[in-house]
Amino acid sequence: MRARHVPELAAARVEAVRDSTAGRYSLAAEFYYGLRATCECSRYGVAELSFLRWEIERGVLNEPTAERGGSPWWRAVNDELLRDKVEADLLADGSAGAASSRNVELWLEFMWAPSAASWYRAHNASIIAGYLKHESLAASELFVENFMMNVALLRVIYAHALAAAPRLALGRFAPLGRLLGDPRRRSVGLFLDLRNTFPQRYPLDGWPLEDLIAAEQRLARALDYGVIASRLTELYDFAAACLGEPRITTLVSDGTPCYSWPAEERAPWLGGTGRPLARAIALATGRRHPALPTA
Question: What residue spans of the chain are helical by DSSP H?
Fold first, then answer.
């Protein structure tokens, strides 16, 4: 197979399942559990496939013409992830040529030397590439959906830091980081599983943002406002450096997320930082949110 045909074949395989949620899931799972997958690689599918099931259950990956049509943005970001993985799988199987992007190279590096850090580098590089490439699609989504996009992004960046930079992620509790952030363990669902954080339907017509935030469980709020918010800029700086993508730093402004989100709309991100539990957790992990008094 000629080198230039590998990306085209990967794209064709993704195109073939674009309107089938079962097909998307099978293609994603094949990377970890297919005939070419190594036993070591297969252990890393837990976190990604759990999140994919959440997307499918919400309906965001449904075909546009379905009775409950899916989200163009969520579908496009998932496409990016699938294409990168399929291309890497083809190259690892012996197809001639070099990777068409740095993201595909990162997936190959993961396949050659599986680890939590190498999995997060590959996975997050593909996901963030999708975020950056498809921001125009995000702009057409509901305001509450934009909020969820930012929460999903900051959670996956934080999970990466747990595995690769645990002192940044947890301060004095750093020894717990690699255990909690390991994508092979179900404990990572605490950070990446949004089932218990947001409503299980799409679109969220009629949901005011205040109600969406109020529906978030107490532990999830403490995680977002206490642990992550208190170190958000540093987390995005870490992701930008680790992935070699400086544009990641533009997705946070003055300590709050701003992907497809007005930078001046900071209140939803700061509203929970003064709660006693969030404040206590921030201090316990060695941080103080910038919105809190410093005196």
Answer: 5-16, 21-33, 39-42, 45-58, 72-92, 102-112, 116-133, 135-138, 143-164, 166-170, 177-180, 189-192, 209-215, 218-221, 232-243, 267-270, 276-284
> Both tokens of residue 2?
């000629």
The closest alpha carbon to 212, from 158, 274, 149, belongs to: 149
What distance lies between CA 198 and its chain's CA centroid?
15
d(C-alpha 254, C-alpha 39), whole Å? 43
Return per-residue pLDDT of the chain as tens, 295 residues.
444 589 999 999 999 999 999 999 999 999 999 866 677 888 899 999 999 999 999 999 999 887 788 999 999 999 999 999 999 999 998 787 789 999 999 999 999 999 999 999 999 999 999 999 999 999 999 999 999 999 999 999 999 999 999 999 999 999 999 999 999 988 887 777 787 778 888 999 989 998 888 877 777 777 888 889 889 999 999 999 999 999 999 999 999 999 999 999 999 888 766 676 667 777 778 776 554 433 3
Structure tokens at 210: 């205040």
* Cβ(16)–Cβ(23) below 8 Å: yes
What is the rounded CA–CA span in Å between residue 80 and residue 78? 5
Residue appearing with tokens 């190594």: 38
Distance CA 188, CA 216 (A): 18
Q: Beta-carbon neighbour count of residue 135 at 10 Å?
A: 14
Check if the beta carbon of residue 11 is closer than 8 Å to that of residue 85.
Answer: no
One-letter amino acid at 167 equals: R
CA–CA dist 59, 74 (Å, integer): 10
